[in-house]
Every structure is written in C-alpha cells, then in structure tokens.
Amino acid sequence: MNDFKGIVGSADALLTDVAHSATESLVNARSAVEDTMSEARSKLLYARRRVSGQVRQTADATDHYVRAHPWEVLAGAAVVGFVAGFLLNRR
Fold first, then answer.
1. pTM for the predicted model, two decimal places
2. Radius of gyration for the chain, computed over Cα atoms and rounded to the nearest angstrom
C-alpha cells in the first residue's frame, strides 16, 4: 500500500513537472499519465470498498457467534490465554 502511495506521489510530481512544458509529446505523455493515475485511483477505491464490505461481514458474523455462544468463546479465550502464558513463562 505504501509503495502504491509512493508511486502516486511520484506520478503527481511528474505531472507537475510536465505541466510546465509546452511540447506536444510531453502534453500527450501528461495525458497518458493522468489517465493511468485516474484508473489506479478508481481501482484502489474499488478494492477499498470491497475489503471494507468483507471486514464488515466478518465482524457481523463474529458478533452473532459470540452472542449465540458466549461461554464457548470465553472458554476458548481462557485456553488461548493459558497456552500463551505457559509458552511465554517457559522462556
């Protein structure tokens, strides 16, 4: 994700530099970069919405399970805590 943001930042800087040039080939290059940036932004927005929806569904399913089986979840958490404490105490 950080690499993508770095690429977007570099492309924006390139667009600023290209904006000061008046040659037709650079104008065409600027247009191509703008199109690519627009496409990348729309894909990133789509991915963000998709991941947000999946996270929301997972959180809802977890909430329903915990509300339906509170003692089982509590017992599982206690076992995990005991095992983690045992393993950390061995060091």
1. 0.51
2. 25
